[in-house]
Amino acid sequence: MIKISDWNSQVVAQKGTRQTTAYDMRLRVLLNNELIARLLSVVLLGVSVLVAFLTKNTYDSGDSILHFLFARAVPQHPENLLDPWAKPVFTLLAALPSQGGFLGMKLFQCVVVAVSARLAYVTARQLRLPWPALAILFCYAAPDYFRVQFSGLTEPTFGLVLIAAVALAVTNRPVWSAVVLSFLPFVRSEGSMFLGIWTVYLVWNRSWRALPFLFVGYAVYSFVGGLVLGDFTWVFTKNPYGLHSQYGHGLWGRFVESMPTLLGWPLLIFAVLGGLRMLWHATKLREWLQPLFRAELLLIYGSIVAFIVMQSAFWAFGLFGSFGMTRVLVVITPLCVVAALSGLAWLSQLGRSARVRGLIATAGVVAVVVLLFSRDYTYQAESGTNVGWRSTLHWRRDFQESPDMILADQGAAWLKNHDAGYKWHPISFSHLYFAVPMDVDIFNLDAKPPLTKDYAPYLDGVPVGTYIYWDGWFCPVESHLPLELLQKDSRFKQLWKGSIPMDLSNLAGPTAI
């Protein structure tokens, strides 16, 4: 039996000729966690890569496709690297992988998620949470985070930059944390909010030297934009989002009600427990003197709460182009899994012995994994939201090609068989996935004439001989182009029509083209 007389003592009782130090014991635990973390990282990354090769789903068929097209077209249109909507940092990072097609984009996202999960482990380990390697497993067990790996969306990269800044902060590298975070607004616009959180944190810790580095990202891109675009203020003057959203507004509770979809029920419960644990520790004044407590409070829990409140406010008041898309919550997943690990550790303290505490933790992990592949447990909220929808993973629902993409492929196949010289004709469409099977450069207005101008149909600008693909969602919603307008216009003739019944339990987009 080995007994450590004191945690800080180097002298340990021995049996026989064996002698161990407290430092040695801690090192062994660290090595065990590191080995498990590496094993989990390799295995789960391998699972993601396998799914990337098998799945035909792109998470959504709007922004996911458009970000991919922006990145893929960088060699032909280098100006895309400074497009404020596409987000410069994301476009820069994704430009090379996207040359391998959408599969290249998916593999890039798999790496982004793997690195993010690793950084969540580093953060949990530095915060001295038990079983920190579970942070990696929890990242992959968050259903919406797993699904978004196979998209072209900016959310995973935003989450990576955010958790990287947190990991650097808790490992006592505030300057590098500030530098990394300074580029967050150039991955997604919401990144500007986190500059305020980091400012409070750095001031609280008296890290005065790190404060100016929060503006490195703005300085770099303002300078580059000034040289290329001739406008050193382009970061502010070319904001693609107006004050008022064209999509209207909705209910305050929309994003909170979507948390089960993001994390699944077990992880959500553990994350809430983690938040309650933090509030409990916040009642103890001595905790506020600890730098790691302040980092955990502000950078993890503060970021989670602030982001949810901000998105809820934008949607409730109809601000800054908000469409109420709850997928944006994906960016806080690495932070939420650290909170969930903290909550599981707190829950395990109900056990009076190490064995019982281990059993509680094991039961929690089993619940996370098993329920991930079970049915959705839902309830109808007063708002009408089906809370808990898609809080699990199902192959047919989540990873098969969506109906609108199937129709796009069918339409492209028809056109190629109907007109061997179709590449010589302009092709107009609002459903951006058409650009993928037809290999259309959407940034060449001669190849793809616009169907709308100033939020109104613009059919007079469509050249003679243009093929137009009309779909049941993007054309009426984004291009404000109803089908009747085309049908009543004698300049256009319907050549092909297709439709697929939609599974209403899995709204994936339009069902008629």
TrEMBL record:
The keyword Transmembrane appears for this protein: yes
Keywords: Membrane, Transmembrane, Transmembrane helix
Domain of life: Bacteria
Keyword flag Nucleotide-binding: no
Residue ranges crossing the lipid bilayer per the database entry: 35-54, 129-146, 158-176, 211-236, 262-280, 292-316, 328-347, 354-373
Protein name: Glycosyltransferase RgtA/B/C/D-like domain-containing protein
Species of provenance: Hymenobacter negativus
Highest classification ranks of the organism: Bacteria, Pseudomonadati, Bacteroidota, Cytophagia, Cytophagales
